[in-house]
């Protein structure tokens, strides 16, 4: 009865896979969480035993939208990190080369077919997009329909097995075993790096979030009498601003040359550490509710200035004209949907989203000099989106033979490259190509989950056969393909690149495209310094790994 219903109405199987899959994926066992995509795949494999199938056209459309949105959102950061982020980006190259070599060794030793080989790469690297690009490549091999379906099913099965064990391995390696191998206390190292970047106070991450980095205080001027506003602000590196001054009940016009007098009531805003340090040198803190507060305006600005790329927050403030930078503060830095510490020593990259706070006029002035304000729009430019996907499909038809190996990009690889290009163009010319972050996230999440559900349903009957054939070999290989590149990157990053432990471990989590690993790592470190390394390798690996799908299929077909 149920099987007949699912076969006659496969859309029920799709949404059942999504709902149950994301429910299963939400459960956490310590630092381990499967996530919605893997959960959807597991449920789809089970429901696939009923014979329910989704249209191949729906599968292709869903994957094209997902992979284009992936390239679109990652494009600015990918290009921004090609140059200055080479030390971290090198670890992504280590990851790709190592897993390719390991997959080819396993193909020769175990006589794997191209589908199983591609699935091992996708699962061990925890990069679901490889499933799509490899599936397309298999579809272009000119095999019979039955053989093509079998090989594509093997991708999904090998992925699901190796993903689970690879996920556990990368989480435990980065958060538990690697600090022991480096002989460091990760929490102490993260605190040291935090201080090096300009953070203050031995506070846990939760305490930092509870105590805002940007505050305002009201003082009765005493020790600062005779100082001009400009002199007081410059004494603390521009990290505080005198926003209002009241003298004898009247508000004074704020000018850099204004001399503070004893008894003045002054509203001072800025970074918490600077306010705490300056308090004794200003006067006595008082309670005065009729004054305003620091956060008069809060806007998100996309950094587009090329000359600012690679500067720290402190360097940006130092090179800015004192009057242009006055009263503008960077409250947060968002990179690839991850928030990194907005500390004086934090390096800024083109494409970062900077959250600026301050008075309305000050924030508007700062935003105009740094990039463009993210407009609060929910409208998607479907002309831009449609042209991007069409161009990706055209690029995907390109292919050729390299060293006797036939390689074709396919729709997945083509849409990924066009997404990169269109995302980069959007970052340079923000008035065109609106694709709000929420809309892009929906395209990525729903597109990938729908694609995974479709291939999982079609792979259902063949999944058990592959597991029976190889048994424990697939989980073992999945663990090995995480450990080898991870340990290699750990050695190279420490011995030759001289990376700090928190950023190095974050970069290893990023080269694996593993969100659960960085979440566990941040929890152990006690602050978000590992995210600095994570965002760079994540950007590079997230783009390059999907392009390896056709490469693995071509090489495995020649060697297997």
How is the largest sheet built, in terms of strand order? 5-4-6-3-7
Instruction: Give the DSSP E fraction (strand runs of 2 or more residues).
Output: 5-15%
Largest sheet: 5 strands, antiparallel
Instruction: Give the overall shape, derived from the CA principal axes.
Output: elongated
Number of strands: 14
Q: What class would the helix/strand composition place it in?
A: alpha+beta
Low-confidence stretches: 201-211
| Number of contiguous helices | 22
Instruction: Please give the radius of gyration in angstroms.
Output: 27 Å
Q: Distance between termini?
A: 42 Å
What oligomeric arrangement do these chains adopt? single chain
Mean pLDDT: 84
User: Roughly how much helix do the residues carry, as a percent range?
Assistant: 55-70%
Overall structural domain count: 4
In short:
The protein is an alpha+beta fold and 560 residues long.
Walk me through this protein's architecture.
- With 560 residues, the protein is of the alpha+beta class.
- The chain has four domains: 1-53, no CATH class; 59-192 and 379-407 and 414-456 and 463-478 and 511-559, no CATH class; 205-285, Alpha-Beta Plaits (2-Layer Sandwich), CATH 3.30.70.1450; 295-373, Regulator of K+ conductance, C-terminal domain (Alpha-Beta Plaits).
- Helices cover 62% and strands 12% of the residues.
- It has helices at 2-8, 10-25, 36-47, 56-81, 86-110, 114-124, 129-139, 145-182, 186-196, 205-210, 229-235, 272-282, 313-319, 322-325, 360-370, 382-396, 410-428, 437-470, 473-495, 501-511, 515-525, 530-559; strands spanning 28-29, 32-33, 214-221, 240-247, 250-251, 265-271, 283-285, 297-303, 329-335, 338-340, 353-358, 371-373, 399-402, 405-408.
- A five-stranded antiparallel beta sheet has the order 5-4-6-3-7.
- α4 (56-81) packs across α22.
- It is elongated, with a radius of gyration of 27 Å.
- Mean pLDDT is 84; it is low at 201-211.
